[in-house]
Design brief:
By secondary structure, the protein is of the alpha+beta class. Helix content is 19%, strand content 35%. A hairpin with a 2-residue loop joins β2 and β3. α1 crosses α2. The longest helix is centred in the middle third of the chain and has 25 residues. The chain is elongated. The structure holds zinc ion. Zinc ion binds next to α1.
Length: 214
């Protein structure tokens, strides 16, 4: 049976009850979950199911598997109490939306060919993404990108996310919509403020850009 992806319906829910659909070893499938599975450049959530630590979450087809640190103490069919590590997840949500703001501002500053080379990775410490760069990265211009991202945060823009079939979208006005299945806050103001910096060079023709919350 498909796991209901409840984190798309309300990304702010961090405590919920669910029914155990199936188990294999320490992997648990629930009827629906607010735990985000790793994917689309966003790290998995952690937390607890029935008091047991959830150490990773992944998708396999239409099912979402929660891996526990220890053997389950419940059975298939049990109702379990689930809790996300909310402080961690909220930081991930804020950083992930900041990564979208960076995407637009990088192109405004460096031109349309300055695109991400891969989906990157956002965890609770930082967002890192490799952008295509033909020339040397000018750090003063990267400073302007940081200022612009912080302006968009201060502008208190509403963040819209929605589904069209199996596809999820993310949008702030006046920018075009982007594909994204991650979890996000409702308004850019929730991000608070960011620092944008140059990371370790990932290879020729690319620059790693990192975002941290301040
Ligand atoms: Zn995204």
């Amino acid at each position: 049976m498909n796991t209901q992806r409840l984190y798309w319906i309300d990304p702010y829910v961090n405590q919920f009850k669910a029914k155990v659909e199936s188990m294999l070893g320490r992997d648990v499938v629930l009827d629906g979950t607010y735990f985000y599975p790793q994917g689309g450049g966003q790290i998995y959530d952690t937390g607890t199911i029935s008091g047991l630590r959830v150490v990773s979450v992944r998708r396999e087809g239409e099912r979402i598997l929660h891996t526990l640190a220890s053997e389950p103490t419940f059975q298939v069919g049990s109702e379990v109490e689930c809790k996300l590590d909310w402080e961690r997840r909220y930081r991930i949500m804020r950083l992930h939306s900041a990564a979208h703001l960076l995407y637009y501002t990088m192109q405004e500053e460096f031109g349309e060919e300055c695109k991400p080379a891969s989906p990157g990775l956002t965890d609770d410490a930082k967002s890192r993404e490799d952008y295509l760069f033909k020339e040397k990265l000018d750090l003063q211009r990267l400073q302007r990108v940081e200022e612009r991202v912080n302006e968009l945060i201060k502008a208190k823009l509403n963040i819209h996310t929605w589904s069209e079939g199996e596809t999820r979208y993310w949008k702030i006005d006046p920018y075009p919509a982007m594909l994204c299945g991650g979890t996000h806050p409702r308004n850019t103001s929730e991000i608070g403020g960011v620092k944008v910096s140059r990371g370790k060079k990932p290879g020729a023709g690319k620059e790693r850009i990192e975002i941290t919350l301040i």
